[in-house]
Amino acid sequence: MRYGLLLPLLGFLLGWSELSIASETAKTLDLTGHPAGYIALGVFVLAYLFVMLEEMTHLRKSKPVLLAAGIIWAVIAWVYAQQGIPHVVEQAVRHSLLEYAELMLFLLVAMTYICAMEERQVFDALRSWLVQRGFSFRTLFWMTGGLAFFISPVADNLTTALLMCAVVMAVGGTNQRFVGLACINIVVAANAGGAFSPFGDITTLMVWQKGILDFWTFFALFIPSLVNFVVPAAVMHFFIPKEKPDASDDRVETKRGAKRIVLLFLATIATAVTFHSALHLPPVIGMLTGLAYLQFFGYFLKKTTPASLAKQKHQALAEGDDEALQRLGSEVPFDVFSKVASAEWDTLLFFCGVVLCVGGLGYMGYLAMISEVMYMEWGATQANILVGVLSAIIDNIPVMFAVLSMNPDMSAGQWLLVTMTAGVGGSLLSIGSAAGVALMGQARGRYTFFGHLKWTPVIALGYVASIAVHMWINEAYFTG
User: Fold this and answer.
1) Residue finishing a domain among 27, 59, 84
2) What is the 3-state secondary structure (H, E, C) of 243-312?
């Protein structure tokens, strides 16, 4: 549709019928049966089709959702202006923006730290260490999966998956079966690992930021998440070749300050948790304080780099270490603002568009309608299991944000259940999570949509098992 025709069309439709309003005096209008509501739904669906086709169209996912957000809120504002209450919409938009701002700043700090660790070659050094050891394919299958499970609660699942996939690609070579199965295992493990930590996934972060569950409660999901990873991995283990690849002599060393940046990141997490639990401040304040740690350390590195490089070069010359000289010659002073610029801005802007789109649809009344069907008629357990299945098709961010916007009256056990299913449900399909989509590009031709789909029943077995284990060992959370 040409956007030049959109405004006249809106004007015609909005004047076409009387509003379906619950109450003449109500400040919130029910637009679920009004043409404006249908337009908003159509715009959102169209935008999300472009998101799902990102790999084919190469159109960044943030673009269609930001456009959709603008159109949806413009439609809402038009309707409310016709009713003489335009300021109500302004307040609603500001509320949505405030919710996004907290999460965006939190994620920005986390992404900055991850970018800093990548630049200091922390992840490259870990990859190099694994490749040098000469482990068997089966050992590497479990090691890469296990590391993905335990790294993703701190780093995001996308970075973790890419790191482990690099190891698999380096040692797997042309062994298609190993690379394909190891990539599936990494995707499942990274998504499962992110489900039991507030820092592991945006969905868990949203629940924690909302104050629904405290920081330590999420760790009740550790065993169910582990089951989600181990069950399919145990089945796939028997299909991994018993061969042993050749060891590599590829060696990567971390840059100066790498270990201290890792420690500062852990200190930042501790600060965010302490600020939230002890001082009742939003976690984002602790994260921004942690960003200051990195900024001051970056200043220290920048000031001391010339003297440190001179000392190391003098030592390398004395020892005749040409490789060290070459490496030292490529080092540049650490710049924290370049790490901020390297953050995944497409993801942050996509998240902004999603929050505004879902917020707009919720303001129209659609989320209340869906909540009535899912959580009142079907029941919380069935609804939360369905959320996980939906997250395999639709990104888990809008699904989880919709659930939070509905704010159904649920026990802590049910909130833990929906947090877990939204996180691990994306493993059912390769397109269900950022980790899966990224690995399809990184291991193109060896890890594919249909290759993953073939193992979906096995992954679903782990999904069902994790739900059963959660409802068994965390029974107290359902009755508390």
Assistant:
1) 84
2) CCCCCCCCCCCCCCCHHHHHHHHHHHHHHHHHHHHCCCCCHHHHHHHHHHHHHHHHHHHHHHHHHHHHHH
Which of residues 84, 117, 142 is at a domain's end?
A: 84
How many domains is the chain built from?
Answer: 2
Among the ranges given (46-60, 290-304, 456-470), the one the predictor scored with the smallest mean pLDDT? 46-60
Instruction: Give me the chain's average pLDDT, please.
Output: 80
Domain interval for residue 269? 96-480
Higher pLDDT, 418 or 84: 418
Nearest to 404 by CA among 371, 438, 378: 371
- Residue 399's CB is within 10 A of a number of other CB atoms, namely 26
Same-domain pairing of 16 and 75: yes
Q: Where are the alpha helices (DSSP H) in 120-175?
A: 122-132, 137-151, 157-172
In a domain, 151, yes or no: yes
Is residue 90 situated within a structural domain? no
Q: What one-letter code names the amino acid at 11? A: G
pTM attached to this predicted model? 0.71
pLDDT for residue 165:
82
Count of Cβ atoms closer than 10 Å to residue 13 Cβ: 15
Structure tokens at 222: 């550790």
Q: What are the residues whose beta carbons fall under 8 Å from the beta carbon of 66, sequence distance 6 or more?
A: 349, 352, 353, 356
Shared domain check, 111 and 40: no
- Cα 222 from Cα 153, distance rounded (Å): 10
- Whether residues 156 and 41 share a domain: the answer is no
**Residue 91 forms part of a structural domain:** no
Span 283-304, pLDDT tens digits: 889 989 999 999 999 888 888 8
Statement to judge: residues 56 and 157 lie in one domain = no
